[in-house]
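Action item from last meeting closed. Structure (127 res):
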């Protein structure tokens, strides 16, 4: 069991040295991230001016475990829509929650709305 599953906001907090990054850094060596959330982080790095090669290098240095998004997770993400729609949780948010459920690990996020989510995963806010 991983110590935590990271939402893209949690990993970006580390990369940007934001408030709450120390919470993530403390468990980073035993954390996982979904390929969906990994794609969000790569997208943000590229949006901020990094090349794909630079984004890859940054994320390789962190060496976080990346878990493939598969059909059962896709189905769970769809199912979670009903429980999280009122909060406006995105597909990426729900992908993190689905992986956290599967791994029986807490989901770490900087998104305060998650605290109100009625889902099968433990949610831990980093700030």
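Sequence:
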């Amino acid at each position: 069991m991983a110590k935590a599953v990271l939402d893209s906001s949690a990993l970006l907090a580390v990369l940007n040295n934001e408030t709450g990054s120390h919470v993530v850094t403390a468990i980073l060596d035993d954390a996982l991230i979904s390929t969906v959330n990994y794609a969000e982080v790569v997208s943000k790095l590229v949006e901020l001016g990094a090349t794909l090669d630079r984004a890859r290098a940054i994320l390789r240095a962190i060496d976080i475990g990346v878990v493939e998004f598969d059909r059962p997770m896709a189905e769970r993400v769809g199912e979670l829509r009903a429980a999280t729609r009122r909060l406006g949780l995105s597909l990426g948010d729900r992908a993190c929650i689905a992986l956290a459920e599967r791994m029986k690990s807490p989901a770490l996020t900087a998104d305060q709305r998650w605290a109100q989510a009625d889902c099968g995963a433990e949610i831990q806010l980093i700030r």
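Note appended to the action item: The beta strands are 4-6, 31-34, 65-67, 107-109, 123-125.
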